[in-house]
Amino acid sequence: MVDLRTEIAGVRLRNPTMLASGFLDETGGSMARVYEAGAGAVVTKSIGPKPREGYPNPTIVELDAGLLNAVGLPNPGIVEYEHEVKRAKKAGAVIIGSVFGKDADEYAGVATKMASYGVQAIELNLSCPHAKGLGTEIAEDEAAVRDFTRAVKDAVSLPVFPKLSPNVQDIASFAVAAEEGGADGIVAINTVKAMAIVPELKMPFLANKFGGLSGPAIRPIGVRAVYDICEKVHIPVVGVGGIGSGRDALEYIMAGACAVQVGTAIIPKGLAVFDEIVKEMGSLLEEAGFASVSEAIGVAHA
Amino acid sequence: MPKFEVVPILELVRETPTTMTYRFRGDFGGQPGQFLMVWIPRYDELPMAISYLGAVKGITVHDYGDATHAFATFSAGDRIGVRGPYGNAFRLEGEKVLAVGGGSGMASMIAAIEALAQQGARVVTAVGAKTAAELLFVERANSAGEVHIATDDGSRGFAGFAPALAEKLVDREKFDQILTCGPERMMKAVVDFAKKRDIPVQASVERYMKCGIGICDACSLDDQLVCLDGPIFTAEQLAQFEEFGNFRRDKSGRRVPA
Description:
The complex is a heterodimer. By secondary structure, chain A is of the alpha/beta class. Chain A has helices at residues 28-36, 78-90, 104-116, 136-139, 142-155, 171-180, 219-232, 246-255, 266-269, 273-287, 293-296; strands at 6-8, 11-13, 17-19, 41-43, 60-63, 66-69, 95-99, 121-125, 160-164, 186-188, 192-195, 197-198, 203-204, 210-214, 237-240, 257-262. Helices cover 36% and strands 20% of the residues of chain A. In chain A, the strands form 4 sheets. Chain A has an 8-stranded parallel beta barrel, surrounded by 8 helices. Chain B is 22% helix and 36% strand. By secondary structure, chain B is α/β, with parallel strands linked by helices. Chain B is globular and about 50 Å long. The longest helix of chain B has 14 residues, at 184-197. The chains are: A alpha/beta, B alpha/beta. Chain A binds chain B through residues 22-27, 29-30, 32-33, 45, 51-54, 56-63, 69, 71, 74-77, 80, 83, 198, 200-201, 203, 205, 263-264, 266-267, and chain B through 3-4, 6, 37, 39, 41-42, 44-46, 79, 81, 83, 210-218, 220, 222-225, 249-255.
């Protein structure tokens, strides 16, 4: 049996799969269900200081190329969210709290409250590609990535994982900035900025006009990003983008990721996707002669 | 079906002062109780019950906000976006079925009422509304079986709520299945009286939705998703839910009183 347990900056996971932020994670009931279905951890919806409705519909559309969304960071606010974290914790879930804000103080304030609810780590959504003034500008400014990471690190005693945007010239330099800010790990990548237009109606599909693309189309972009990041930083990396099978997950692992996040693949495969990925990873690793997933991390760099 | 398509509206039918049916051609299938995500361009995209199955589909919409108000001003030829059908369907079981519909809830049930009648079941429908003018699909339900009417103001039929009328009906005749759709408080009353008599219930539940495909978590009811696991739940499932009849989620995901 291949040992599939993994660890990111001290956060121990029973397997390398996590629920990606933005999927089935606005409520504690759903997060508990995903954990019970087999995910190694769940990342919460990105939570801000106050309740936020997000954009009007349409906010999501399935394209041949993947899933396009601009939901606009809807969330019940950090105060109300305590109830949801507590509910998921009752199920024994390993929870990583995703947070956002408009400035370093807001990030630090929300992260402090999130930490007090008993999550195991903080993910910083520094890269939402479609919410004005909330992450977008930050994602494209290396100094902001460093300073915001530093502000949150100073505020909490948990591991902090900034999630980076692929919509930049050189994502690895942003990872370096995050590491300089004290990040304990990196999550890459967030969605790729994209748009779909409906010819019959002569207008973009999304109410917000543009949004973020996820799904299989962005997997090669994510794998490249993780590979580049791992060449430049010394902290662990979590890979995300288009993972729907054990083979997909191993691409990221061999690029250097120590864990992976899964979101869009839930649409075709349901929550069984976590179990499927883990089982397939196990047999592929076994065939390749690995005794554990940790042995396979970064082997493509040789 | 393709994941998304744009269709011209063929016909608008005014059903009640606040309810309109829109007919359009749709090659996708669909089963009684399922819904579509309907994009009213420039306004909103909303889940809507399929009230007519077949080649020319229909959705029946209660006008309750800005988007549905704008939709009511659309004309034949105007185009809308549709994706679906989504969600589970009513299980068409039972020889003698009671349907209890409140207000626009009839839109979700009428296709099931007709399908049950077609397969030979006796279908008795208790239709409720605030006033006589707001009664929906009385004629269609009547063609499929027997109809009893309740209005809050007593302007037609039984003066009172549909569950009170329905409870009288189950005391008069033995039913082996109850379907219900309407205000949550109404459905809770139906579930309660059915439980006392041990009659299975299927209830179609409504929640605010964004994606319709089981990922955004906006429509969650405890740990179930109304868009994917529902919209139809059994009385046994509903009994497990802390939120049914008590809480719903607003657009930000906050739990608010139902």
